[in-house]
Amino acid sequence: MVFISYASSGDFSAGNTSSIVGPLVLWLFPNTSPETLLVIHIITRKVAHFAEYALLGFLAARAFRSSPRLQSRWFLVSLVLIIVYALIDEYHQSYVPSRSASIYDSLIDMAGGLAALLIVRRRHWFGRASKSPV
């Protein structure tokens, strides 16, 4: 969550990340048009939103599944954490001058966290099913 908060700062604004993504793409694909470069930059930023919250989802699931008090409700507690933090994160970005807040980014964040939780739950279910006698 500390990294997500740092990534919401001006250091990770579109202007700053374009100075990394742009040269890398142009080095790999020198004939990339400015329009294509812009699309790649936007997609890269949205994938980063999804990935950082997917990681948060995995870590939350790991923490809450092993908690004696929250073990039975790990999925719900993890999902609430992801939703609340995604909304707070975008709200915080609305106060950073070089950033903009978007509910769509929050939805991408929530989708990443939910995807991770569903993977953990499915793997957990298959893990239990394979241990039970047939």
Textual characterization of the structure:
- The chain is built from five helices and no strands.
- It has one domain.
- The longest helix has 32 residues.
- Helix 3 crosses helix 5 and helix 4 packs antiparallel against helix 5.
- By secondary structure, it is mostly helical.
Features:
single chain, 134 residues, mainly alpha, 5 helices, 76% helix, 0% strand, elongated
Walk me through the topology.
Elements: H1 2-7, H2 14-28, H3 34-65, H4 74-93, H5 103-131
Helix pairs in contact: 2-3, 3-4, 3-5, 4-5
Number of strands: 0
- Major β-sheet annotation: none
**Cα Rg:** 18 Å
pLDDT averaged residue by residue: 85
* Shape call: elongated
Count up the domains: 1
The CA-CA distance between the termini, in Å, is: 42 Å
What portion of residues belong to β-strands? under 5%
How large is the count of helical segments? 5
Output the helix-strand order. HHHHH
- Structural class by sheet pairing and helices: mainly alpha
Low-confidence stretches: none
From the structure provided, what is the oligomeric state, counting identical versus distinct chains?
single chain
* Helical amount: over 70%
In short:
By secondary structure, the protein is mainly alpha-helical. The protein contains five helices and no strands. It is elongated and about 55 Å long.
